[in-house]
Amino acid sequence: MLRKERERRVVERVRSLAKSVLGNDFSHGYPHVERVYRISWNIVENTGLDVDSLVLDTAIYLHDIGRVFGEPHAYYSSIIARPILEEHGLDNDTIKLIVNAIEYHSYSYVLKNNVKPLSIEAKILSDADKLDALGITGFLRVFHYGWVSGRSFNETINHFYEKIFKLPNLMHFNYTRELARKLVERTRRALDELLEEVNV
């Protein structure tokens, strides 16, 4: 009981930290983190996976916290996470799994650094984060981030073809692959309708 209570306090503290640091930005702020949390536990429920909730929850809440420093945000998030987790008395093995999950969630960071998942929790976070980049939510996120980051309209459109439409191939579970395919089709329809309207 004491261990469960301690773990609950750790998760609540990192959740509170993420909420205060990331703010309400739709594309990568705390609303995104909450969606990833919901999607992650939906994956667990629909796959019957046995997970360490401490590893999964802390990785979820800390996975984008490094965005306050820029890119590569997965690297900065992992650097920020380690001393926080040490301060809360987590053992080295648990910290290693959480840090790996944080690093592994990022599409670009994995490609550049050949990061491999060390746990089922890392795979769940990776899939959940990518699922939030699909569907109408993902469609809005791409344009929101494009505007904020100064991408041109054509650069934003190209992002769908260069990254977003490839995400189903990166999923780890049958459930997430099927869901990703459905959401990609929804994204494609939205993009096709937009391009028809603007006549690009």
Question: Describe it for me?
Answer:
This protein has 200 residues and is an all-alpha fold. The chain folds into 2 domains: 1-119, no CATH class; 133-200, Up-down Bundle (Methane Monooxygenase Hydroxylase, Chain G, domain 1), CATH 1.20.58.1910. It contains 10 helices and no strands. Helix 3 (53-62) crosses helix 7 (120-131) and helix 4 (73-87) runs antiparallel to helix 5 (92-104). The longest helix is centred in the last third of the chain and has 25 residues, at 174-198. The radius of gyration is 17 Å and the shape is globular. The mean pLDDT is 93.
Kindly estimate the percentage of residues that lie in beta strands according to DSSP.
under 5%
Give the overall shape, derived from the CA principal axes: globular
Whole-number total of structural domains: 2
What's the alpha carbon Rg, rounded to whole Å? 17 Å
Q: What oligomerization state is this entry in?
A: single chain
Return the string of H and E elements. Answer: HHHHHHHHHH
Largest beta sheet, briefly?
none
Given helix and strand content, the structural type is mainly alpha
Give the helix proportion (percent range): over 70%
Task: Please describe the structure with a list of short key phrases separated by commas or semicolons.
10 helices
Précis, in short:
The chain is mainly α. It is built from ten helices and no strands. The chain has two domains: 119 residues, no CATH class; 68 residues, Up-down Bundle (Methane Monooxygenase Hydroxylase, Chain G, domain 1).
